Amino acid sequence: MTCTVGYARTSTVDQTAGYEAQQRDLEAAGCTRIFKEQTSGADADRPELAKALDYLRDGDVFVVTKIDRLARNTKHLLEITETVEARGASLRVLDMGLDTGTPNGKLMLTMLGAIGEFERAMMLERQREGIAKAKAAGLYKGRKPMEAEKVNRIVSLKADGMAPAKIAREVGVARSTVYRILEQQVG
Fold it and tell me: How many angstroms separate the Cα of 130 from the Cα of each of 86, 117, 122, 126, 176?
């Protein structure tokens, strides 16, 4: 029996509307099982994505609303696509109408993944230029420091033996933030 499996992701817990919209779109696409998580796409620890890929069976369709909800770059997209295909399933991207169950779909997904990665690189370059310009004009102050209460909680949870990924979820910050805070406290 084939199944339509969905995957929804937002980078932060604050992105409620986008999270709910993805779930709604996946349900409308006929997904009978939806795996969802709120974590950065750059985060290597994405347990729900791993569960979703492991859940796939021969003939299933793995559905996401947008490519950027699934992969962080073209290489990662192709790795995920290979995993999906190795399980005998196909990948469907709703906003582009792509389906890797067809040769055209495979070609278009690869091309669009590369274009998306290029767009992201260009956006980051423009962002760096804007920050440099703002710094030169004395307008850029950097990020606000984290509240002492959160820093103390991170340190306390680590002292209690909690893993950084779990601390990040508990406190509501990125895992990299936990590592940075812990490194600052030790160093």
Answer: 43, 20, 12, 6, 24
Q: How confident is the model at residue 21 (pLDDT cuts 50, 70, 90)?
A: very high
> pLDDT tens for residues 105-135?
888 887 877 787 788 889 899 999 998 998 8
Q: What is the pLDDT of residue 41?
A: 62
Contact 68, 95 (CB under 8 A): no
**Right CATH number for 4-102 from 3.90.180.10, 3.40.50.1390, 3.10.20.880, 1.20.970.10?**
3.40.50.1390
CA distances from 66 to 58, 112, 148 (A): 23, 11, 37
Specify the CATH superfamily of domain 148-186. Homeodomain-like (1.10.10.60)
Q: Name the catalytic one among 11, 40, 90, 156.
A: 11
| Sign of the torsion angle spanned by Cα atoms 99, 102, 106, 111 | negative
Residue 76, φ and ψ in degrees, nearest 5: -65, -40
The pTM assigned to this predicted structure is 0.61
Q: Does the annotation count 11 as an active-site position?
A: yes
